[in-house]
Amino acid sequence: MANISFAPSSAEPQSTTVIYFAAEGAMASKSLQTLDARMGGALTRAIEVADFKGKRKSTLELLAPHGLRAARLLLAGVGDAKTLTRRDWAEIGGAIRSKLPKKTQDADVIFTGLDGVTEESPVAFALGFNLRSYEFKKYKTKASSKPDSEDPQAESELGPIRLTIYSDWGELAQRFQKEEAVASGVYLARDLVNEPANILTPPEFSNRLRELEAVGLTVEVLDEQALKSLGMNALLAVGQGSSQPSYVVVLRWNGSPGGAPKDETNLVFIGKGVCFDTGGISIKPAQGMEEMKGDMAGAAAVAGVMKALALRKAPVRAIGLVGLVENMPSGTAFRPGDVLVSASGQTIEVLNTDAEGRLLLADLLWYAQTFLHPKCLITLATLTGAILVALGKENAGLFANDDELASRIIEAGAETGEPAWRLPLSQKYDKMINSKVADMKNIGGRDAGSITAAQFLQRFVRPGTPWAHLDIAGTAMASPATDVNQSWASGYGVRLLDRLSEKFYER
Length: 507
Ligand code: BES
Ligand code: ZN
Ligand code: ZN
Hints:
- The protein is 33% helix and 20% strand.
- The chain has 15 helices and 17 strands.
- Strands 7-8-10-9-13-17-14-15 form an eight-stranded mixed β-sheet, with helices on both faces.
- Helix 9 (297-311) links the parallel strand 9 (266-277) and strand 10 (318-327).
- Helix 9 (297-311) crosses helix 15 (494-504).
- It is elongated and about 85 Å long.
- Bound molecules: ligand BES and zinc ion (2 copies).
């Protein structure tokens, strides 16, 4: 993460790189005019020569700019500055991070003289800058020690950078602390999802969650024995073929001291943590199976948002609940045809051991409603390949039994750039998982695969409990490069849930 600080616009920039913004059609803004005067008109000339118009995300770079202390001047187009949202500013921050040479050690960002900028803009910019600074390079042994190495294998890393943001507000540090907490949560989620499954086993995952006690979360780890006595047989069945033990971890945040809301109900986030999904006895094809190291992205997002809430001392009661298992084929694995008695007492006929996520979520939903006093329940899971067919990587699939909760999630997702698109639930779809031998079967059929998976979950939600489900198989892993993320894991869900909490559930 970059070392970011804030300064009043009256202070003098000190860094080797200085960044100014230019709005489209407003090249004659006061701060640019002042700059141009200091540069003896060199800025105007450069703008003309390059035909720079200030279009969003276009940049103009001047090296050794005349009259300035800085070695590099970056003019960054923002388009129509008046229409820019927090999300836009975060994307601009990310885009600018990528425009700086990797070895850049310090930079100044000048945020004055732009119409439509609020005190949220520099802070959102800083968040985007930090999100883009993320890299997963821990297994690259030939990395950056020799940045100019001829070795094509050697990839340079982003170096540490000091960023100073000059604005009319000067003291934005407190506001920024909150965004830094969110970035920390996103980093954690990405690290967990990027980590290979030989390292991030269920025990290792639970160890990393225990470490969150350091930020003020209460962490409770339930082992197989505890799960057995609770009757969480559906979850245990998924893990029984693995040589790794299964765990359920409960992460609690009771609001900052003195800031906890009076009512005792909790936001409850439930995450699928299948550390590796081979498919089990219904084994997956070899092609692309390595991606199933990311099948714990729901649990990672839950860990990430809980860390963010704790770091920013959010005045809210929230609980993260994750099931950590490995789905393997072996002599002890569960089989197609098995009938499981879930913790809720409902029975499940297993017709495909690769539809495992819903099995562990079923028991977690029971646990949450039995012990955690939910105000609402939100499940996050890389649940179905079918959601990629329906929505691609642009939107997570959203299902809900409650219109208000659904619209809040859609709003939080749109604002943070982690969008979700609602899909239907209904009795007709529910019927598709009726079984001849048990209360239900764990697959529907070829049609509407993401919906029947959600219907399965809904059978474990008691009427009257607001519940929403995000199918993040398309959005959390194998992610396309964006302004705010270049890594395989996006960290999807952390920012959405953090905003949901901040906007709708905090004092
Ligand atoms: N983990 C997968 C879903 C998945 C697919 C996640 C692609 C990320 C990318 C899940 O456990 C699974 O295998 N689902 C099956 C369900 C089917 C057997 C009904 C699927 O989507 O094929
Ligand atoms: Zn599966
Ligand atoms: Zn899975």
